[in-house]
Design goal:
Oligomer: single chain
Largest sheet: 5 strands, parallel
Strand order of the largest sheet: 2-1-3-4-5
Radius of gyration: 20 Å
Structural class: alpha/beta
Helix content: 40-55%
CATH superfamily of the largest domain: Response regulator
Strand content: 15-25%
């Protein structure tokens, strides 16, 4: 599981990184909130541990921007305030927060929460053949080695196809689930995303082995 820790206290960030690294997690830290969005755009973490009192852009504003931009990153807030006050403010801005930790806290509390998130991430992972899709991180891992980042719509299309591996998914089903649009209005954009996925995932995009077209119906994900 990939964890990003963001806060203005470098020593605290480093301590959290060391604790979670010992637990087997991959951890990056960042001390400046204005760089958070750029880092997440490069690679979305499975878990973002965010200090509410981050300067320049407080944690709630970061959470609001993440949700507005379509990210579903799991968030844990570190707060020096009452957790009740923090929860109320988080609810007011529509931020879905996994949990809140009130400072000072025991390292074991953070470790247990990270383990809980890791179990959640594992449950949401979709396996099909030699590919694994991590919907939250929007990453495909091939043969447990090659990591391929996906754009949000690419991830949604692939998630539906992999969840129905071996079955034909009609264009209408894909469009209704992903864009809530009529097939007549959006079939060309769907073909564009299928083409992009093939370029990223297929050894030969012109002769796809996994994301296959079913003539006049839709698409099928084939495990090979």
């Amino acid at each position: 599981m990939y964890v990003l820790v963001a806060g203005n206290d470098h020593s605290t960030n480093t301590m959290i990184r060391d604790i979670l690294t010992q637990e087997g997690y991959e951890v990056d830290v960042i001390d400046h909130a204005q760089r958070i969005m750029r880092m997440i755009a490069d690679r979305e973490p499975d878990l973002l541990i965010l200090d509410i009192m981050t300067p320049h852009m407080d944690g709630f504003e970061v959470a609001r921007k993440l949700r507005t931009d379509g990210y579903k990153t799991i968030l844990i807030f570190l707060t020096g305030h009452s957790t009740i006050d923090a929860k109320l403010r988080g609810r007011d801005i529509g931020a879905e927060i996994y949990d809140y930790i009130c400072k000072p806290y025991e390292p074991l509390e953070l470790v247990e929460l990270a383990h809980a998130v890791a179990r959640h991430v594992k449950r949401t992972t979709i396996h099909s053949g030699h590919m694994k899709l991590f919907p939250i991180a929007k990453i495909v891992v091939i043969d447990d080695v090659k990591r391929i980042p996906l754009a949000p719509t690419e991830e949604r299309v692939l998630r539906i196809l992999m969840s129905n591996a071996g079955q034909t998914v009609s264009r209408k089903q894909l469009l209704e689930v992903i864009w809530n649009e009529n097939a007549c209005n959006a079939s060309d954009p769907l073909a564009v995303y299928i083409c992009r996925l093939r370029k990223k995932l297929e050894p030969d995009p012109h002769n796809p082995r996994h994301i296959c077209s079913v003539r006049n119906i839709g698409y099928k994900f084939v495990e090979k």
